[in-house]
């Protein structure tokens, strides 16, 4: 019987003779883990790779050199202002490239769903919501969410202040809101002093978290949804 392990700390656990066929691990930290006499067949790994040794061979350099997203993938949780700005700048260039390709080749694709996934317009609305949740409200002190934001499905029943799920904004309105948010985020990280970031801030639904984590979540959201869109729209 399949089980679900959510938000659990299983550090230092031992798995012996365990069947994990067809298992899915998401947002999981395997740092300093050891796998002995394991069977890895048709296994797909997507994540930050450092000091990965397989059968005595350190494959880190090989993997990273052939990773289209390296070194950006390994710089989504930066601890200095300079690296945060570097990642944000790189993400901005990648998004600009994608949007330029899409709008030049097939403008109608912004409202096209692939395999039931979010359209580009919906994805950008979700990123507006994420920016509100993790930056505009907790860090800048904005009082309510953008009406056109789109939470993930499991959170849509929550009463997010200012959010209106009945909204059906066109692409131009979505891009205008996104551009304003991006401008304000960029200005903030360019002028911030790391030592002046609040130790913790309150996040709707998630409680109190370190302020630096909020910036990391923004980077991660932008990165992951960029890759989803490139995959679904097949524009590269």
The level 1 CATH classification of one domain is Mainly Alpha
Query: What is the fold named in CATH at topology level of one domain?
Result: Four Helix Bundle (Hemerythrin (Met), subunit A)
Spatial ordering of strands, largest sheet: 1-2
**Percentage of residues in helical conformation:** 25-40%
Tell me the fraction of residues in β-strands, as a range: 5-15%
Report the C-alpha radius of gyration, rounded.
20 Å
Give the overall pLDDT as a whole number.
Answer: 94
**How would you describe the shape?**
globular
Structural class: mainly alpha
CATH superfamily of one domain: dinb family like domain
Order of helices and strands: EEHHHHEEH
- What is the tally of helical segments? 5
Total strand segments:
4
- Tell me the major beta sheet: 2 strands, antiparallel
Low-pLDDT runs:
none
Distance between the termini: 40 Å
The CATH architecture of one domain can be given as Up-down Bundle
Question: If you had to describe this structure to a student in words, what would you say it looks like?
Answer:
The chain has 236 residues and is mostly helical. It has a domain at 76-233: dinb family like domain (Four Helix Bundle (Hemerythrin (Met), subunit A)). It has five helices and four strands. The strands form two sheets. It has a two-stranded antiparallel sheet. Strands 3-4 form a two-stranded antiparallel ribbon. Helix 2 runs parallel beside helix 5 and helix 3 runs parallel beside helix 4.
